[in-house]
Write a structure and sequence with these properties.
Elements lengths: L4 H32 L2 H28 L2 H25 L4 H29 L5 H27 L3 H20 L15 H4 L1 H7 L2 H17 L5 H8 L3 H25 L6 H21 L4
Helix pairs in contact: 1-2, 1-4, 1-5, 1-6, 1-11, 2-4, 3-4, 3-6, 5-6, 5-11, 10-11
Length: about 300
């Protein structure tokens, strides 16, 4: 699989870009809490990252279908690099405030919303059809690796100041941008039909027409929205668990570690029966773990 140079460049680029985003999430949350000492402001950081995804997901999908995906990823990462450069300058010069952090989080969230589907859809453009399963597995491994390494590295770097984490994120983004620039696509077929309300909402109609998909997505969405404590992790790391930024990085990495463990289990023991019951049982465990996390003082 890695003999395909374009796929290898894309695979490495995804590790660097995802790691950069994870480091940024740790650094921005940590700096916001250091500046404001406010749980409300931390919640706004999460909202600033989530709203662009909510509002721009449909346009991002249409854009990935109709324009060169490599160019979309390349431009998004260039824009992210500019934002991170401003974060570096603001941290080093001391003029960075909470409003700047919220604007940066919103722009980064918007860029990631367009970059995500374009990057995922780029894989079929550069590998043959028979290679797609292996390519998907390699791509998933890149994401999981970055989800563990990125937050941990971000937590370590914040010990030397948020500027250090921003500089590392900028370097990772620039490496990713250069690699994406040299990716060559061979299979891209652009959609030629006009963009109208019918094509714009086709994805939503597909989901709403299939109750199993709608129910599963809704269940996951509300569980994450109402049960996720990710945005508040700087408070837990600093004030409750007393672990500092290093502990914050490890806390941000822990869900990815759990995901990898379960993924490995599922490759050997796939869920084929009572899938609905398994899903609900998983949500019960998720809820109990969230409650345990909320009351625990033990790192």
């Amino acid at each position: 699989m890695l003999h395909n140079r374009s796929f290898l460049r894309l695979w490495i680029a995804r590790i660097f870009s995802t790691s950069a985003f994870q480091m940024l999430s740790v650094a921005i949350g940590w700096q916001m809490y250091a500046l404001t000492d406010s749980a409300f402001q931390l919640g706004l950081v999460g909202l600033a990252q989530f709203l662009p995804m909510l509002l721009l997901t449909l346009p991002a999908g249409q854009t990935a279908d109709r324009y060169d995906r490599r160019t979309i990823v390349y431009l998004c990462q260039l824009m992210e690099s500019v934002v991170v450069l401003l974060l570096v300058l603001g941290s080093m010069q001391g003029w960075l405030g909470s409003l700047h952090l919220l604007i940066a989080a919103a722009i980064l969230g918007a860029c990631r919303t367009f970059e995500g589907p374009a990057s995922a859809a780029l894989v079929p453009d550069i590998v043959d059809r028979e290679q797609l399963p292996k390519a998907a597995a390699w791509s998933a491994s890149a994401m999981q690796t970055a989800m563990i390494v990125g937050p941990s590295l971000g937590g370590v770097l914040v010990v030397w100041g948020t500027a250090a984490a921003y500089i590392a994120s900028l370097a990772a983004l620039l490496v990713s941008t250069v690699l994406i620039f040299f990716v060559k696509t061979v299979h891209f077929v652009k959609k030629l039909d006009a963009v109208n309300m019918d094509t714009f909402l086709s994805g939503l109609r597909f989901v709403f027409a299939r109750k199993i998909i709608l129910g599963t997505i809704s269940l996951d969405l509300f569980a994450v929205l109402l049960g996720g404590a990710t945005a508040l992790l700087p408070i837990f790391a600093e004030d409750i668990l007393k672990t500092g930024s290093l502990g914050l990085g490890l806390l941000r990495s822990a869900p990815a570690v759990g995901a990898i463990v379960v993924s490995l289990i599922l490759t050997r023991y796939s869920v084929e029966r009572a899938i609905g019951k398994t899903l609900f049982a998983s949500l019960v465990v998720f809820a109990l773990a969230t409650i345990l996390f909320g009351v625990s003082h033990n790192f």
